[in-house]
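Query form — protein Peptidoglycan/LPS O-acetylase OafA/YrhL

QUESTION: What is the three-dimensional structure of this chain?
INPUT:
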Amino acid sequence: MPSADHEFGPQNLGHPTQTVTRQPRDRSPEHAEPSRFLPHVQGLRAIAVLFVVLYHFWPGRLSGGYVGVDVFFVISGFLITSHLMRELTATGTVRLSQFWARRARRLLPASLLVLLFCAIVAGTPYLMPISALQNEVSEIIAATFYVENWYLALNSADYLNHAGDPTTVQHYWSLSLEEQFYVMWPLIMLLAAWIGVRSFRGARRRAVLVALGVVTAASFVFCVVFTITDPAPAYFVTFGRMWQFGVGAMIALVPLLRVRHAVGSFVLGWAGIAALLYAAFRFDGQTPFPGYMALLPTLGAAAVIAASNADRWWYPTRLLAIRPAQFTGDISYSLYLWHWPLIIIAPSVPFWGLTIWHRVSLLAICFVLAWLTKRFVEDPARSWKVLTTRPARVTLWSSLAAMVLVAGVAGGAWAVNAPAYREGVAEIEQLRADPPECFGAASVLDPSCAGVSFEDIRPDPGFAGIDRPEHPECFVQLNDARPVSCAFGVDDPDAPTVALIGDSHAYQLLSTFDRIAQERGWRLVTWFKGACPWNTTPLSTPGAFGQACTQWREDVGEALAASDVDVVFTAALATTPYSAAGYDSAHDAAVAGYREAWSEMTDRGVPVVTVVDNPVWETDPNKCLRTHDDASECDGARDDVLVADDPLRDAAAGLADVTLLDFTDVFCDADACFPVVGGANLYRDQDHITVTFADSLGPWYQAALEDALAVRAP
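ANSWER: The structure tokens for Peptidoglycan/LPS O-acetylase OafA/YrhL are given below.
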């Protein structure tokens, strides 16, 4: 996250022989020694923020742009350590209240402005679905009090793989982490300096260097291990990122690391930029990150900072100092704050689409907003005399009051819309319990429903996001390899047993199959793991996630072998990435893997039923449905949203004991696929169907299972 600081590392980091000048009480003593502006570090900010922003606008084009955040961490470590060390050397201490007050004046005004904007948008149903309100309000409050990174870590958010529905403030995780750094870092340095004075003959600087070196090394080891064992929270956890601040701190504390030799600086600077570009274009959501892979962008940023010679125009230090780079670096903080909420909100704005021109226009709007915020919010707030001429506690208490105000607005958004939220939930429950005749899939599959039409879309596009299965405890995610099994339906051990197995596209059928099992007197047992279909071919996903999927499959296979299952139903996302090793293509590998997994059951005489995957959209169709009266305006081109060669279809071809259900004609015609069919809202997000629509397919699922059980019966 780009810091708003613009005072850059010193010529000297402070030596005991320097003269100390008494500072006015309204200024932080971190300015006790002169510092010089380093334009190339400001230019590095520009590279970092453009990486992040372009990654969010075009993730397929700049798949590793998320490393821009790592660059910001290194910059912050360098700058803040420089400031603190100057103050420690000059005065023997750090006036924490002054330091924290300065950080608050620099960072909070723009941050809270954007949070206030997001809170207002969250309470506006026309721009934000009411089904998202609960998550929006929770994360706005978490971001306001700088614990968003921990909120996401504890809720298993998967930043790189875009799991779930991101809120308008998800990007505040990095700002939260930086604020925690601002609290902990000076405390660590103060403690180390005190130990240096008390126990090491006044070796304050050496003690600080050793302490920060130990913290950096320990954090890096923790980061590598935690990324292997649990990568989703590892992306957000504070201690797993401290080493990146520490790398910047080492450049600030060790003068030998700042290269002023012309050739050395030239080579080091360009090598750093090359490393950053490689990471930005070659890393992607499958890269095990942060972990050891974060070394590349971290050391790349450090190399650019360390390259100090600016004698020639072709040196990176000079090129990063050109005016466009300086301007972008100047507005980087506000640009980072504004771009993500606008990306989330834009698809819900009437007459706004997702074409290249819409994206470019939105990017331009982000730059304009960032400049306006810098000019009229950031800069004035830093020198606001009502705060700077008073004790630091005035700034700190005022900041807390502003934070409480923003949190109150977010809470007010929930209070105003809570009745509508509860009504929407109740309507979905009623719709599931008593759907109208010819609703949903029946309007296509039931000949008696020909010509029946519906005026309303149900569930409402503002509530479709909550129309999802219950029992998340039965759904295993990320690196969790436990073969968690749940039982539904009837308790009679002699009842026919149906197994429902697969990834989230199998899990989306859970509520429907539970209802069928209860009505038919069946037992239903389940095994679900996110992004891990029931298949023996390894995923192409490297690292711990791919390994967890393989382990889960093996354990589920053992559980199935020991169970008395009468029929297996499985479903899977058609775009799952499989390893092509040993096959002509990943598609052929997936087909072979499905057949091998199924044969473990069909060889025992247990039939398998599967289904062709539903279309997958680029973005949630409900964003379009909320802003268009005619649902047909939200149709998607068949070639864009439907996988033509679903490996499940090809795997089932020619297998006597495997039944294939294909509802493609319900979702699509020859040219387009639909977000609404027979009055039913098909999707709760870009690729998962609503429980309401799955229920409308229930009679056809049930018929296929009954036929399979009839074959299984002795």
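ADDITIONAL NOTE: Residues 392-433 form the longest helix (42 residues).
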